[in-house]
Amino acid sequence: MILAGIDIGTNSLRLLIADTGPGYFQELISDRRITRLGQDIDRCSVLTPEAMERSFNALVAFQKSIQQQGARHISAIGTSALRKARNASVFIERVRAQTGLVVNVISGEEEARLTLLGVEQSLSTPNGRSSNTLADAFVMDIGGGSTEIIRTQSDKKPVIASLSLGAVYLHDEFIKHDPPSPVDLARLRNAVCEVLDACTETIQPAMNSICIGTAGTITSLAAICQGLEQYDTEKINRSVLSLEFINTIVVKLEASTLEERRKIRGLEKGREDIILPGAIIAQEIMHRFGFFSILVSEGGLREGIVIDLFERLNKDNQMRYTQI
User: What is the pTM of this model?
Assistant: First the structure.
């Protein structure tokens, strides 16, 4: 069954079209567009016309790919920017009217649940079976508008925290100079620490937990770490980021201008301004919870959206069969 999932994020929009079925998951089309939908939203609480136009155009392109691949069902999910914006309904209605896509805005907790599904798929064994990696894990998804943390433990329900720490929001709020001034950096780091202070006890990992990271900040750091000229999913997925590397790259990013960051091999174009806030979030989380490395998952929310769609369709079909 060919299905499509769209992740409408604060910084980027991501499309995945996959052939799915019991025990298999094959990616057909993967696309990502940086549109900065949530630009300045913390300041004005609305989506700007320019940001909506960029994002709408990306969705039009996604819809064409979906039609070409013949996807039978689509799930389009909105996250932090659409949760916050007072005028989100204007954007959602335009998308529905002109593309036919129905956008569902989900909570941070639901976002974390779907992310966990995608991470599990991404880190599964070659035969598609789930590994034991998530049996006792601390998963962080650093996004443009929020950071989701999921603590998993064997035979226990995952503990989920959706934090108001987003790379786009932190940049817009605190970075006022190029390169950032010491005051900019101090205020940004204090803001991150304040949010973590409020949730440390709730999401405290077990002693032997493995730290897993997903989404653009983490995968970009992995690409920088490997010095990739071109993004390579196979090289990124299951790679490891050390705390030593993150400490080193944060120092480099703090001292660099936007123009200098554009020359960093592996850094995705359009992420030059927000890679530093994202890296500081990762750094502070690792320091706070005592992690010395991060296992990178290339899969996350987007993959989880497709998996969840398949599971819901399969459940509906089973119910119809039972009723007959």
Answer: 0.87
